[in-house]
Automatic annotation (TrEMBL):
This is Restriction endonuclease. Keywords: Endonuclease, Hydrolase, Nuclease. GO terms for molecular function: DNA binding; magnesium ion binding; type II site-specific deoxyribonuclease activity. One of its GO terms (biological process) is DNA restriction-modification system. The keyword Lipoprotein does not apply. It comes from the Bacteria.
Length: 226
């Protein structure tokens, strides 16, 4: 599948895209409104050097930039909780494979699904941003999207994170102590390499995932070689 036929050319210059279980086809064809809103959000993303220098990990101004665009469109952070209701149906007399219409016992496992939150949800599309958290956060995100998918809440999910090429920026931008900010964007934080190996090992289960990497072109006031 040629992603260039689905993604506008200007976005291909600013982001990298990795398509799993036909997520891109599903979102663009079945949910064009949500896709157009995500495209608008990606186009408006403008990260400055001062944004990179700010402390706060995943709570810097960068996640707020996504809030400012997506919330007016109706995207919301969602957390789900659910109980598992189990019914036991006995076999009818000596008839193998035939069971009573009435259960003889019922059990409820409370909070069988609990605490799974996603940054943005609209219609049947989920969207998560991981800018600079511990890389284990991807396990939580993929489990959440897999759970939403298995519960028939979503049809596909999008996860956006840092592209590896942003390291070129981090090595040249200095923090307030005069040291490269690369030290706070380490290998054990959330970036595309940490996400892809999890997707390649199918930790998303059957949930279609579109992985998006933020590239150097998104840094508005940084020039390579300076």
């Amino acid at each position: 599948m040629d992603i260039k036929s689905y993604i506008p050319e200007d976005l291909l210059e600013k982001y990298e895209f990795h398509n799993y279980n036909h997520a891109l086809e599903i979102i663009t064809q079945a949910f064009p409104e949500e896709w157009n809103e995500l495209v608008t959000c990606l186009r408006k993303l403008n990260i400055s050097v001062s944004d990179l220098q700010a402390a706060g990990g995943n709570e810097t101004n960068i996640p707020k930039k996504f809030d400012d665009v997506l919330y007016p469109f109706g995207w919301r952070e969602i957390r789900i909780s659910g109980d598992l209701h189990i019914k036991f149906f006995p076999r009818q007399a000596d008839q193998r494979g035939r069971f009573s219409n009435e259960p003889f016992e019922e059990r409820v496992i409370e909070q069988y699904i609990d605490g799974h939150n996603i940054d943005f949800l609209k219609n049947r599309v989920a969207f998560d941003l991981e800018w600079n958290s511990k890389d284990q956060t991807f396990d939580r995100d993929l489990l959440a999207m897999r759970t939403y998918y298995d519960c028939d809440i979503i049809s596909a999910g999008v996860i956006i994170t840092r592209s590896q090429e942003l390291n070129d920026v981090f090595k040249t931008v200095l923090d307030h102590d005069g040291k490269p900010i690369m030290r706070k964007y380490g290998a054990s934080t959330t970036w595309m390499g940490k996400l892809l190996y999890r997707l390649n090992s199918r930790r998303n289960g059957g949930c279609p995932i579109l992985a998006v990497g933020i590239r150097k072109a998104c840094i508005s006031d940084w020039t390579e070689g300076e």
